[in-house]
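Hey, quick one: can you model this chain's 3D structure?
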Amino acid sequence: MSVYGTEQVAGPEGLTYAALLVRAPREDVLGVLARERFSGWVGPSEGGWVTAVPDRPRGHVAARRRRAGDVAAVVAAALHVSVVTVLVQRDELLRLWGYDGTTQVVDYVSDAHVAHPDDDEAYGVLGLEDAPGLAALTGHPEAADELTELLGEELTDSESESERLVALCRLVGWPPWLVAVDSLPRRVPTGPDAHAFTRLRAGRTGVAGLLAARAAAVVRRDT
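Sure thing. Here's the predicted structure for all 223 residues.
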């Protein structure tokens, strides 16, 4: 698949990870995530985007048992900015949720059958029509056609959703190290050092965060 290039980005076991990309000042992002009792890491601003990595890619990561996709809606509405959540599941599924303030403009599923394995009628890509909206949301409306092609292409057995995400990052100006955020709390390969990230546990840092995380663990689930 020529659109992906030749980079190998995922191991044979398949990676699961998630990230929120917020187009806002870092201090504003930290403030909202702390208020919402977010658990994860908040990285530095890069290319105008702040990356927040939830510690449970598919589980509850904020107050009111919100998952990563739900947090995107809360942050976008609170700051009146663009927010996109990326979820890669076992390198077999790519999901994207995108918001412009209070308006959802992206709800993409790369493979409906992988997302809903118990649904015999689930098949193919969902939300491909949102690709132009994603291009506009990221400030690259000129990439609409390329994004549509990229998100609509069916992967072969030798390709992964992390490879698709690398190509997506190139098109919209996101940091390419998104595909390596599962390495946290260690250093992110090709990305920032671990100390460049702020660790939040239920919205708090340090010892207070450790205690808050223990309390939150009672109601939060991994999936």
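One thing worth noting: Residues 68-79 form the longest helix (12 residues).
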